[in-house]
Structures are given as C-alpha cells and as structure tokens.
Amino acid sequence: RSQSWIRFNIPRWEGARLVDGNLAWDESEMKVFDEAVGYAKDKKLQVFLVATPPPVEPTTDKDEYARITHDYFSYMADRYKNSVDVWQINNEIDVHHPADYSRSEER
After folding, report:
1. DSSP letter at 48?
2. What is the DSSP string of the chain?
3. What's the whole-model pTM score?
4. What is the dihedral sign for C-alpha 87, 89, 90, 91?
5. Per-residue pLDDT tens for 54-77?
6. Is the pLDDT at 20 greater than 90, yes or no?
7. d(Cα 39, Cα 104) in Å, to the nearest integer?
C-alpha cells in the first residue's frame, strides 16, 4: 500500500514576520513550501497543512491579534486554496504562561 497523505508544518517563525504591526511575507521562504506542496500534489498526495501565525508581542491587544491572525490565514487560504486538503489552524504553541489558561487579564 502506498502513502496517500503528507503533513507539512509552516512554523510560526517561517514565511511571515511582523514589521510595525503588519505581516511581511518572505517569498523566498514561502517558495520552499510552494514547491513542497506542488511536489506532493504532483505525486497525487493529499496535503495536510499546519499553519501558525508569527508570534506577537505580549502587549498586543486582542483586536490587533485578531486582525493579524485574520490577515495571516486569509493570505494562506488564498495561496493554497487549490492545494491543501486539510488545514490545522495553529500548532501547539511553544511558549506557555499560566495566565494563558486563566480568566485573569493580569500576568
């Protein structure tokens, strides 16, 4: 039996960075993912893509974070709309703080 799925992960530090609160895409990094996804589709594989927006400053407010996240996933969806079969929105975040799991606004 042959392989039918492949999982790619675009880590939060590759592809895009925040510059003055806006996403700045690195086309040379994204080209690597374009080629990998294209190769997988050429081989008739189903693509499972994990995508996580770039990190933000701890002081970023919720509305700003929502805008950045929306812009990130809108761009990714448009770029890979005909190539990705399953999307995983966010991977496990690598940095945790107990306040992230509480109702408190304080840290």
Report:
1. E
2. ----EEEEEE-TTSSEEEETTEEEE-HHHHHHHHHHHHHHHHTT-EEEEEE-PPP--TT--HHHHHHHHHHHHHHHHHHHTTT-SEEEE----S---GGGGSS-S--
3. 0.78
4. negative
5. 888 888 888 998 899 899 999 999
6. no
7. 46
Residue type, 24: A
Q: Is 47 helix (H, G, I), strand (E, B) or coil?
A: strand
- CA–CA distances in Å: residue 81 to residues 17, 33, 36: 21, 14, 15
Tokens 């609160």 sit on residue: 21
Query: What does residue 89 show for φ and ψ, rounded to 5 degrees?
Result: -85, 110
**Would you mind telling me the total number of residues written for the chain in this entry?**
107
Place of tokens 């709309």: 81
- Count of other CB atoms within 10 angstroms of residue 65: 13
Distance CA 19, CA 25 (A): 10
Q: Residue 86's closest CA among 40, 55, 54?
A: 40
